[in-house]
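Work Package 3 (structural annotation) set out to generate three-dimensional models for the target panel prioritized at the project kickoff. During this period the team completed the workflow that converts sequence records into discrete structure tokens, so that structures can be stored uniformly alongside our sequence database. As a representative example, we reproduce one entry of 526 residues exactly as it appears in the project archive.
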Amino acid sequence: MKILLLIIGFLLLHDISFSQNQNISNGAYFDGEPYLVIDPLNPQHLVAAWMGFQLSNKITIKTSYSNNGGTTWSTPIWQPHQVIDNSSADVSLAYDLNGNLYMSYIDHDNINFLNGAIYVRKSVDGGSSWGPAVEATSISDCPNQACIDRPWIAVDKSGGINDGVIYVTSMNADQPTLSFPPYHPYLSVSTNNGTSFSNPRFLDTLNFYAGSTITQPMPSPLVTSNGVFMAIYPAYEPINQGPFAHLYIAKSTSAGIDIDQLDAYSGVGSPISNTYLKKGSLFKSDPSDPNHIAYFFLKETSGDVDVYFMESFDAGTVWTTQIRINQDPLGNNNLQDLVWADFDSDGDLAVCWRDRRNGIANTYQTGTEIYGVVRWKDSINFSPDFPISSQLVSHDAVLEGNGNDFMNVNFLNDTIYAVWGDVRTGVLSIYLNKIGVISGTNSIQIISQESLSSFNVYPNPTSDKLYLKEKMIVDSYKVINENGQEIMNGVEFPESGLSVSKLTSGIYQIFLYSGKEIKMTLFIKE
């Protein structure tokens, strides 16, 4: 029987070579909250930053760089504290168009909060060295608010009138004795390449206040390709705004001097009942279309926490329906979290998250993997989701701390660069995987038996057995169905062929593990 299948173009992820997940921090005690950027002037130059334990210095910010696309990394360097016995956290990185690199983070007295600020450092040599710490927002700037938690940095790279402007957003710290309602998202701005910053101001305003119920209304910022600053934040003020929660967008075309608010979304919320889940949301802009923006978040439906997103093609006025991204069965009680995403320069989209489909249902404390999907610019559908981490990692109590298991993703030239916190060695470390993906020429790709001849296994399609097309040593293998479930596994791919005769008709993924290499191939069961 000859098969002609219409398969979403992303299924041409059919021959992805996975590098071995690489430990880039190699610390002996604790490394968490990673962030990764790629030099706009040299895509082979990568810089990572994270918070890590440093003997006699508590938790500091550490950085490392790679000059060969992530194959090897420099020895990590750490940033000294502003005050002895301080601790640091919440690092993020951003380049400008000229190759200057900026890093924001908190350095504070994390016991008594007697001092603390968000600082920004600048590197002109790609992270080999860092300039002095410049205060962007101080705890003294916001009495009774403690406005220095979870800073994010964004830099205008539009080449327009505000090119090079640096934006740092933040929120109230989770300190009930220090932060009192009403709560706010905050913004500080530098118009002189990080030499100094404006005093922090509220991103919210009359009729668009975050309110007194959401204690930490975290803003997620971006700068569009035409130089518009935006930040999205949650709000709930039922007396003045109606009975439902809102998502508001703060927008500025004047480097933060004037800010306009936009009601992006309102509706019945979906509170996440599991308090351990890392449920921070993310706001991203398409570099190929300044009006195309996307919002990524967690949503609890059918007794299940999943990864969702919605997008706007008119800069935030009209939004699509909410779309579920992870593809394990709906309502299976497997909890997903830790979402991150990035647009490629041509508008392709990669989304990654921490996945528990192969762990124990209905619990945070179970084995996890990092999964991802891709959607090409000219399609409305995502690829089948696929694993990015190379193994199921057992749970460790250190992951229950806020931010310890953060992840970050860059998507450049159809390559996903993902970093995340991982406990596979017994301590929390920063791991990297770099995955090249292949796109089809159209949103729908016709795959026939003839075009499948280039796949790694044959015959393809098959009704009986699969054989390896090329000779390779296979240490182990596993087969994943269309719902992302592992349904077969084993060691040493059988020379007599792998029998798939009992599988129902459909499309499957087979992962072949060989030393440090992993190959993933799609096959069709007739």
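Residues 1-19, 439-454 have pLDDT under 50 and may be disordered.
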